[in-house]
Write a structure and sequence with these properties.
Blueprint (H helix, E strand, L loop, with lengths): L32 H7 L4 H19 L14
Length: 76
């Protein structure tokens, strides 16, 4: 019996688990509740798609592009 490959894309979670005021996404990792729930079962392709959405939310919310700190700690 063959085993499925282990996903290699790391979670963006930084253990700051708090939803924004609107309940739209986590202010630590910028994932939605649905994205957080599916993460452990997701394949790398789906995880990468989530990370693209995470980056878009981070930039929209904080002005910080990739390479900046999570949670809005970077300078816009």
């Amino acid at each position: 019996m063959s085993q499925l490959p282990t996903p290699s894309v790391a979670s963006p979670c930084i253990n700051v688990c708090k939803m924004d005021d609107d309940g739209a996404f986590c202010v630590g990792c910028f994932r939605t509740i649905e994205e957080i729930a599916v993460w452990s079962r997701a394949r790398d392709e789906q995880r990468l798609n989530i990370l693209v959405a995470v980056e878009r939310r981070r930039v929209e919310h904080t002005g910080c592009a990739a390479g900046g700190d999570f949670g809005g700690d970077c300078e816009p």
